[in-house]
Every structure is written in structure tokens, then in C-alpha cells.
User: What shape does this take?
Amino acid sequence: MSSPNPQNISQPKKRIIFMDSTLRDGEQAPGAAMTHAQKLEIAQKLAEMGVDVIEAGFAASSPEDWCSVREIAEKVASEKTKICALARCNPKDIQSAATAIAPAISKNAGRIHVFVATSDKHIATKLGKTRAEVLEMIDKGVRYARGFCKDIEFSAEDAFNSDRAFLAECVKTAVEAGATTINLPDTIGEAVHFQYYEFIKEIIARANVSKEIVFSVHCHNDKGLATANSLFGLSAGACQAECCMNGIGERAGNAALEEIAMAIQSSPNVYPFEFQLDTHKIKEVSELVEKYTGFRVPNCKPIVGKTAYSHGSGIHQDGVIKAWETGVSCIYGAVNPKEAGYTEQIVITRHSGIRAAAYILKQQGIIATPEQARHVLDMAKTSGKKIISPAMMKAIYEQQYLKTKYPQKIVSNMPYSRVTTKLQAMREHTKS
Ligand SMILES: [Zn+2]
Assistant: This one.
């Protein structure tokens, strides 16, 4: 097994197609269902961000889904953003997908995505068919879809667990029937990054189809490897990444769009890729998806977590502020927050230091001496709050140094019980 270190892979710069499935695979996460209007708004934002293909839904799954896909196809499809609908490999599903995206097809901006399982386990247990019957389904299904639309994606469900010779045969059959994109998913989130790399490489080589055919990666995050696997798959020769905003999706979710995009953007020497996404809009879209799905983004989630660019500990804060003073940003952090629509922040916690306290006070219009900053910080830390707001820092300073009810030397000598009583009063004041 060769080492799939991406740094050793020499490739020409290639264009990556982002296919966002937030509205289809993402919405399949239990409890993530969105309304028709919410899905349309998200689709519009994804298009504004520059997503190449929006998988808008599984049209045959319900009349509501069909209507939702239809409206997105009418209002969002453009030269820059295609609208895609999912269909099983049967005429009824394909017809439903085709009619739903008809407005997009008429603008040459529609895609039908047909899929069938190709692993022996799925063929036997789920489909109850033979390999030969699956090949026939692929041939008939893709040809039928091609009758409606020139842009056809074929997905081999559970591809990673499929017999590789048979999978290559499925790929050839789909391409001969008219498929233009071939998706090789790790449907159950089983692969480890180097295995997925070799898998993609091997299937592309075995299938040996025209260079015009786009291979696609689609990874699930059951082991926390969806982003890594997607990047390894792209390095192995795939050109399309299927992903969801905030990494939502079935079980532990899909690969996160923002993670794949920012990993590429911030590691250009490792990933010689380009894309049309405007990453500056990531924050806006992430917050919209969080709001409408109700799936709260964890604070420490890469790229879009609330604390992903915050510094709370004194040592880091000291370094970050010194660097800012010399015009340098992100000395602690591998991703430039501005590129994803965020800002680097200093947050006062009980781990914070004097430099951060002085910095926060300065932001509040207060030039504090180091001694004052230390004193305010010490007082703030006794409040018991996990995060001390700039307003509270300001209130403590004013209480101590402007409203001279308690001269500094008295406050400094104040018994602990009186300090906490005073801070309790201040907390009540800042709450209101
Ligand atoms: Zn999936």
C-alpha cells in the first residue's frame, strides 16, 4: 500500500465543483426538516456563495419535496449554479425528478442524480437482486434520465464496500448510458482517508472512461473523517465534492462544505485546486442553516464554531495582541477567519491576562494602567462568570476608578465577601 501523502502528489491546478446537499442529504438528519420557504432562502444563499450544484431534494419522496425542488429550480437555477434532484433508478422517481427540475433544464442548469446500491450486501439484502440485474437497472435508469436532461450524475450507493471489478463495470455502464458525473460515496462512513484515496484512484483507473467524466466524492462522518476523506479523494483524481453546510446529514453527518473549502483555501501548496465559492459568505450561510434546522453548531466546530477564532488564555492573548500591533493576524490559528467571514477575537475568561484586560478596556474607550488592568481583571475573575463581557469590564473599571465612592486602596483591601457582594450587584445591573 503506497503512502498517500497529499504533499507528494503533483497535479496541475484543477477546478473543484462543489455540490451542496444540505437540502437533501443534510435534511435527512432526523429533526432537520425545513419549510419550503426556508429551503428556498438557503438555496438562494448557497447560489450567492457560488455553489456549483445544489441538490435541492428527493422529488419523489413527497409532494412537498417535489414542490420545493420545483420552486428552487424556477428561482435559483443559473449559468453559475445548477439545480439537481435525486432519484432512485426507476422511471417513476426519474420522471418526478425531471419534472421538478424542468425549469432548470430549460436553462441548461438542471441535473438528475440517479443512484443504485452496488455492494453485494446492499444488492442482496436491500434490493434482492443479482449483479446482472443491477447493471441492467443502471443502464435503463441512466438512459431514461438522459432523455430528459444532458447532465446526469450516477451514484453507486455503498460504493466503498463494493467489489471493485464490479463497481468499475457499473461505472462503465453508467457512462455508456450517458452519465456525465460518477459519484463514489463512502455511504456508511467506514473508510479511513488513505483507503479512500486508493479506492478512488483504483476505480478511476479500472473504469478508464473519458477524461470528460467528473468523478465525485461523498463522505459521511461516522468516524470524524469525512473532510479528510473528501480531500484525499479529490487528491486521488475526483473533481467534485459533495457536502453539506455545518456538516449536517444522516447519522454523524456529511462532509462539511466549509471545512473542505477552507482546507483547500488555506493550504494551496497541498491542494492545488481552485473553485468558484466565495468563502467570505460561509458565516452567513452557516448561521442560516443553524437557525432553520435548529441544529446548533458546537462552539469548537472548525471554521463555523462560535469560538473557532477566539482567544481566552493569557499566553495566547498576549501573543495575538502583540502580533496585531505589528499588523500580523492569526499567529495562533491555521485559518484566516476573514476569509470565512469571521473575525479573530479576544475574550476575557478566568484564564486571561493583563494585556487582554487592557486591550478590552481600550476597546471600551478606557486607557488603563497595567495596575488598573490587573485590578479590574482580578475583580472580574471573582464574578464566577465563564466569559466576562467587555461591558462588565467597563462597569468594574468605572466602579473602581471613576465613581470614587470606594477609593482604590479601600477596594484593594476590601474583604472577599464584600467584593463578591459588590460584583453580584454589578451583575444584576449589567443584566438589566
Ligand atoms: Zn450521503
